[in-house]
Here is the input.
Amino acid sequence: MADDILAQIDEQVKKHPILIYMKGTPAFPMCGFSAATIQVFDSLGVPYETVDVLENPAIREGIKRYSNWPTIPQVYIKGEFIGGCDIIREMHAKGELEPLVREALTRSCTGEQ
Amino acid sequence: MATGVQPITAEEIRDRILQAIPDAQVQVRDFTGGGDHYEAVVVSATFAGKTPVTRHRMVYGALQDAMAQRIHALALKTLTPEEFEVEAQTAGLGKTQTL
Here is the structure.
């Protein structure tokens, strides 16, 4: 049962080049940290997918176990856990996020592995 | 959410981090004054060569059960002493800092 959730999450993060687990939606974030994270990606002007953990309590708990990370939001790029709000903002400030994001999107568009 | 859970204090957060990372210099700020939104700046030489994710996990690890139940929100900054120097100069962080 619980492992089903982890398998489901694993599938989600690998399917989308950029996936953000958040509280609420990009249009209506329900938490300041989620809102700040979305703001960073919007400022980059790149497409991303989100999962609203408030809509799914099992994912809300499962995602913390999946990444061994106790907080939400959580950002995954190419299936890899990148960090929460603080790390994303820090990487963005240092100019480290954009290249990572661009590379992830380029690869997914050309179907390259 | 469990009932009867004591809200955590800034001091307790600081103590727990220090227990796990003894060489750390820790500053915890209660964002709202309400005991539920905290910001912690943790400076430690043990962070050198570690990714931000690893550093944050070290701090979260120190707060384990509290993180799950008693801390609603914690903004984290994890820096090496060298990085802190740079931050302090560029962001004026050091002005009010007692680190």
